[in-house]
User: What shape does this take?
Amino acid sequence: MAASADRSGTGRAGKTWPELLALAFGAIYLLIGIIGFFITGFENFFGNEATPDVHHEDASLLGFMINPMHNVVHILIGAAGLALGRTLAGARTYGWLLAVGYGAAFVYGLIAVGEEWDFLNLNAADNVLHIVTAIIGLVIALGPVRDAVDSHRRA
Assistant: This one.
């Protein structure tokens, strides 16, 4: 019997739930980043609702304010999830990156929303999404996964 063939807490293809969650979040954020560029284009890269210009209209995706820089961040977060979600250790690392990065984005958003220097063009909905994503990152990083050895000992 292969030790990795029957891990408790695994999904398809022998993936653990943290790996699957990291891959899912990576795919979602990558898709959101790509779709975002169809809405914002590439002009006014750091634009926000507090500093409108003649070429900029407030851009939002499902109620979340975005700009091209915000789209780049989503694409990078998505690509990291797809790359790191392939192993449990990578998924755990991705979870920590989400927890720390989005925790910091939440704090930044509390201060920056509506300010001229808000280079990510955040709003209150973004802040809620950021704290939820940070919490999910902690779940990915710290959630328990039993391996095959544990499940055979208990059986």
Notes: Residues 107 and 127 are 8 Å apart (CA to CA). The mean pLDDT is 81. The chain is about 60% helix and 5% strand. The longest helix spans residues 88-112.
